[in-house]
Design a protein that fits this description.
alpha+beta, Glutathione S-transferase Yfyf (Class Pi), Chain A, domain 2, about 750 residues, 4 domains, Immunoglobulin-like, about 50% helix, Transcription Factor, Stat-4
């Protein structure tokens, strides 16, 4: 079943979540019509490879054209109209930046997998609950409402300033008219009446000046309160959601909404600034005793400038954290001399700033806060922000060709690179720029989340563990000394993050039973993990009891095994995986003989085994577990084929496949049939292929179980038999006779 088919079967509350991240950037119609094709492409790789992204974009448009031809024949007018619009959108929006559509589709697929994993969980995890708090959603709506109200108030004040300007022009005209009269005319009763009218007009001017200044003051106060409270909280929440998304959590959104709020507030502040400048012009033409403008205007202008400085400083954010294109699901782990990408955005989107802001990238700017290892950035480290490279038109800049290079120490050698010292050292990528606008000069600076520098890919697993632990445990964006004394993590939150590793990396998260097994493995005993605290050392530094590896190394090896060798079986949910030997026997003991389950080895790194239940002649139940298959053996023979062809020789009996039903009662071929590389009776004949002078051979996994043993004696035996020999035997002998010959 395709991922999209599974999505469509979700409950309405999960479907509403899916609906939130499909928009005009990637319309749901395309996701629906091209579901299987979309899921068969490697969008993650294309998100960091421009040439590959361009090919996928072109192929996507071809697929849309094929659909357009099909619906044209069916005369589906609405769908024809939508597909034409979508085709135009894809060509116009992404032709200059094909990697952006790859990022969007990759994120959508990943978010679908996360929602599917969440739907299979009995309860929502504590971290995800905190991110979807109804109070937070209500605050978002309040911020948008208040920003809109502030914008309207600033525009209304514009009208008041215009009225004041017109009133003062009328006053100037009438006053100058009287001043131009002869002295005798000024003593007339009519002129005295006009002077009284001028005095009344001056009183009105004074009142209107005070009223305008009061309204400007209220707008400034509203902006100040909004920035100090709700908007700051919104920005901090977005940054926290970004942290969680970086370690596999829910896809973070809301940056476009924040950009809209920041931009409207900046426009309102600049509008207020122009109003104050207009009042200054009116002041130069007319002032009087008790005039409120010279008293209040300087204070208001100072406050506006202060708010603009703060607004711009908060608006400079890292939209996409540093990430190596070769490891898109391991952000913030950077390898020396390997390129990484990072994207920044200014949330104040003003046309006047397009291509006017040059951003400079540096590493470890505050060198006193980091380790003895020193790095420099090679490649293009200064670029201009613009609105043309992003599909949504945001004012942003993406560095795509930066490389960290380690500098030699004064002694001529590189810094300490022990297995944990390196992966626990945190570094920071900093960015600085300057905004010059309407007479203001504002220096901006921001930093990435802490990154870990590695010099060898073997350090990647432990480095990623550091990134997980940091972003799980703190929302401090720049605590580079974090691992000097790393805090403990709540076990329930850690298990939730571990499930995210599986949903984001291999397409299916962990259920409560699987998480309970991991909790027991971490703690060494069954625990109620709602409020249990786990140390960093126990997670990543201390070896598991009786083993030569840590918990995290064991888990990372399983992730790698799934990704490279058993991914389809894992996504289908046929790999129970995390179950102890004791629990598996409890599950199997009452099942039909031949029922088996698949679990990950607890003693071998990156190993998977299967255990089946059998019944002896006296009625006793016995269990057999095959020696774990590792990536080396699975590279030679697909795991589904192993399950299909596996044979057991019990003493002198005929070889037979003991695997009948996948737990609890799924016929083996029904579960794995679609994953078999070929059917047993479809083996090739000698003329069909093979190196000249040789006949091709196949491997059949066979185990031999002795009468005095309940476990396979040599479970890894692989006996070669050529396809041609097998085919000839099938023509002349029965399957029983063949297996008797094999056993002999």
């Amino acid at each position: 079943m395709s991922q999209w088919s599974q999505v469509q079967q979700l409950e309405i509350k999960f479907l509403e979540q899916v609906d939130q991240f499909y928009d005009d950037n990637f319309p749901m119609e395309i996701r629906h019509l091209l579901a299987q094709w979309i899921e068969s492409q490697d969008w993650e790789a294309a998100a960091n490879n421009e040439a590959m992204a361009m090919i996928l974009l072109q192929n996507l448009i071809i697929q849309v054209d094929d659909q357009l031809d099909r619906v044209s024949q069916e005369k589906n007018l609405l769908l024809i109209h939508n597909l034409k619009r979508i085709r135009k959108l894809l060509q116009g929006k992404y032709h200059g930046n094909p990697m952006h559509i790859a990022v969007i589709i990759s994120n959508c697929l990943r978010e679908e997998r996360r929602i599917l994993a969440a739907a299979s969980m009995p309860v929502q995890g504590p971290l995800e609950k905190s991110l979807q708090n109804s109070v937070v959603s209500e605050r978002q709506r309040n911020v948008e409402h208040k920003v809109s109200a502030i914008k309207n108030s600033a525009q209304m004040t514009d009208q008041d300033v215009k009225y004041l300007e017109d009133l003062q022009e009328e006053f100037d005209f009438r006053y100058k008219t009287i001043q131009s009269l002869e002295q005798n005319d000024k003593n007339s009763a009519l002129i005295k009446q006009e002077m009284l009218a001028l005095q009344a007009m001056l009183n009105t001017l004074d009142y209107k000046r005070k009223e305008v200044l009061s309204k400007i003051g209220r707008v400034i106060h509203e902006i100040d309160m909004l920035m100090s409270n709700m908007l700051t909280e919104e920005l901090l929440d977005w940054k926290r959601r970004q942290q969680i998304a970086c370690i596999g959590g829910p896809l973070h959104g809301g940056l476009d909404q924040l950009q809209n709020c920041f931009t409207l507030l900046a426009e309102s502040l600049f509008q207020v600034r122009r109003q104050l400048e207009k009042l200054d012009e009116l002041l130069t033409r007319l002032t009087y005793d008790g005039d409120p403008i010279p008293v209040q205007r300087p204070q208001l202008l100072e406050k506006v400038n202060f708010l603009l400085y703060n607004l711009f400083r908060n608006s400079f954010v890292v939209e996409r954290q540093p990430c190596m294109p070769t490891h898109p699901q391991r952000p913030m782990v950077l390898k020396t001399l390997i390129q990484f990408t990072v994207k920044l955005r200014l949330l104040i989107k003003l046309p006047e700033l397009n291509y006017q802001i040059r951003v400079k990238a540096t590493i470890d700017k505050n060198v006193s806060t980091v380790s003895n290892r020193r790095f420099v950035l090679c490649g293009t480290h200064v670029k201009a922000m613009n609105m043309d490279e992003s599909a949504n038109g945001s004012l942003s800049v993406e560095f795509r060709h930066l490389q960290p290079k380690e500098m030699k120490t004064s002694a001529g050698s590189k810094g300490n690179e022990g297995p944990h010292m390196v992966t626990e050292e945190l570094h920071s990528i900093s960015f600085e720029t300057q905004v010059c606008l309407y007479g203001l000069t504002i220096n901006l600076e921001t930093s990435s989340l802490p990154v870990v520098m590695i010099s060898n890919v073997s350090q990647l697993p432990n480095a990623w563990a550091s990134i997980i632990w940091y972003n799980l445990s703190t929302n401090d964006p720049q605590n580079l000394s974090f691992f000097n004394n790393p805090p403990a993590a709540t076990l329930s939150q850690l298990l939730e993050v571990l499930s995210w590793q599986f949903s984001s990396y291999v397409g299916r998260g962990l259920n409560s039973e699987q998480l309970s097994m991991l909790a027991e493995k971490l703690m060494g005993q069954p625990v109620s993990y709602n409020d249990y605290q786990l140390s960093w050392a126990k997670f990543c530094k201390e070896h598991l009891p009786g083993k030569s590896f840590t918990f995290w190394v064991w888990l990372e090896a399983i992730l790698d095994l799934i990704k490279k060798h058993i991914l389809p079986l894992w996504i289908d949910g046929y790999v129970m995986g995390f179950v102890s030997k004791e629990k598996e026997r409890i599950l199997l003991k009452d099942k039909t003989p031949g029922t088996f389950l698949l679990r990950f080895s607890e003693s071998n790194l990156g190993g998977i085994t299967f255990t089946w239940v059998d019944q002896l002649e006296n009625g006793d139940v016995t269990f057999h577990s095959v020696e774990p298959y590792n990536k080396g053996r699975l590279s030679a023979l697909p795991f589904a084929d192993i399950l299909r062809d596996y044979k057991v020789i019990m003493a002198d009996n005929v070889p037979e496949n003991p695997l009948k039903y996948l737990y609890p009662d799924i016929p083996k071929d029904k579960a794995f049939g679609k994953h078999y590389s070929c059917q047993p009776n479809e083996v090739s004949k000698p003329s069909d292929g093979g190196v000249k002078g040789y006949v091709p051979s196949v491997f059949i996994p066979v185990s031999k179980i002795l009468n005095d043993s309940t476990e396979p004696h040599s479970p890894s035996d692989l006996l070669p038999m050529s396809p041609s020999v097998y085919a000839v035997l099938r023509e002349h002998l029965s399957p029983t006779a063949i297996e008797t010959a094999v056993s002999a």
